[in-house]
Amino acid sequence: MADVRDEPLVLGIETSCDETGVGVVRGTTLLADAVASSVDEHARFGGVVPEVASRAHLEAMVPTIQRALKEAGVAASDLDGIAVTAGPGLAGALLVGVSAAKAYAYALGKPLYGVNHLASHICVDQLEHGALPEPTMALLVSGGHSSLLLSTDITSDVRPLGATIDDAAGEAFDKIARVLHLGFPGGPVIDRYAREGDPGAIAFPRGLTGPRDAPYDFSFSGLKTAVARWIEAKRAAGEEVPVRDVAASFQEAVVDVLTQKAVRACREEGVDHLMIGGGVAANSRLRALAQERCEKYGIRLRVPRPKLCTDNGAMVAALGAEMVARGRAASDWELPADSSLPVTEPHVPGARKDTAEAGGTAEAEGGGAHGHGHPHGHGHPHGHSHDHDHVHELAKDNLYP
Ligand code: KG4
Ligand code: ZN
């Protein structure tokens, strides 16, 4: 067996939303997971304010990197690579992480790996339960996404079977928490209240579960409206809103649909594992119901511990280490922060270019535009991207005052 010291030592940087996450992993072993959150600064606005998040990332970046390296007990010079979330996420927030990763990679002479936030939410489970089976069926549920994904290789092939046609699951939790005046973010607080409520108290609708509905797509907007109307009606009648029962019944409607569709996908695709990732995977009822339903059909459930479900840097480092282990090309210095990076692109080699194999424009969307495995001349930036040049300067000024 190979010495674990041979496994790639990678630092991962995550800044797609309000968490400045820096993780260090060796292969599939978690060494450090440092997170600085600006959530308290957003709470009074009831949602993440992009400019506030970007500013907080700038302030937290260097101290969080230092904390992660110290926690891992490694020197920056020992690293085999630096991975960073290239998207999707808030543009300004992503830019802080991408710029910091470039600055560190350049200064240390290490390869840079731009990775997809969504694929990272799946890959993080390698730190908890070892190598992902291939193929992996993943239910990805976060504040911005809800999808069923099938992946044969988390560094190169992620195929969506279905996704939400309106709100993401986490978004629904956040909105209902707001209607109930429970604060932001909504998921954890609804989870807590629901524990003391009756999930069968109110029959809320289960979106897209009819026989003619797309089997793997989700819809939470009808549910959100139904819950909001129910609460309004109570208030209008001058009655007290049973917050715990509403929370439990709403949560049950969400997790019932999520687990039903995920288990169905596993059975129909012949996959005997189900991975659940993203912030909503921290939900205690989702974890319990998924366990129950997976057991019934002999499906092995893999869900990381709650701290690894919500945004963190270890997940980025985990995917980066997998990129190194599989010999994926490092990203070039043109690596952009792409706020709408498609889930089908786990690896971001560099700027979108007019390449022969893409055969399209520089704006070509979705698959094909980025080949894998071809050298990107790391350390020798080629081409030119006016869009992002100013950002490097801005970030460096702020990182090294
Ligand atoms: O993955 P994540 O940390 O950030 C995004 O990439 O969006 O997910 C954040 C979302 C928020 O909507 C939050 O309310 C939800 O995950 N969340 C939860 C729980 N913890 C976080 N939802 C339900 N139950 C939880 N325990
Ligand atoms: Zn996330």
Automatic annotation (TrEMBL):
Subcellular location: Cytoplasm
Known cofactor(s): Fe(2+)
Record-listed substrate binding positions: L140, V141, S142, G143, G144, D174, G187, D191, N283
Residues bound to Fe cation: H117, H121, D311
Gene Ontology molecular function terms on file: tRNA N(6)-L-threonylcarbamoyladenine synthase activity
Pfam family, one: TsaD
Region (Disordered): 335-390
Gene3D superfamilies: 3.30.420.40
Gcp-like domain residues: 30-317
Catalytic activity, reaction form: L-threonylcarbamoyladenylate + adenosine(37) in tRNA = N(6)-L-threonylcarbamoyladenosine(37) in tRNA + AMP + H(+)
Key word Translocase present: no
Coiled coil: none
Cofactor note: Binds 1 Fe(2+) ion per subunit.
Key words, A-Z: Acyltransferase, Cytoplasm, Iron, Metal-binding, Transferase, tRNA processing
Database matches in PROSITE patterns: GLYCOPROTEASE (PS01016)
Uppermost EC category: transferase
EC assignment: 2.3.1.234
Record's compositionally biased regions (Basic residues): 371-383
Iron in keyword set: yes
Function of the protein: Required for the formation of a threonylcarbamoyl group on adenosine at position 37 (t(6)A37) in tRNAs that read codons beginning with adenine. Is involved in the transfer of the threonylcarbamoyl moiety of threonylcarbamoyl-AMP (TC-AMP) to the N6 group of A37, together with TsaE and TsaB. TsaD likely plays a direct catalytic role in this reaction.
Family from the record: Belongs to the KAE1 / TsaD family.
Protein name, entry field: tRNA N6-adenosine threonylcarbamoyltransferase
Protein species of origin: Streptomyces physcomitrii
UniProt gene name: tsaD
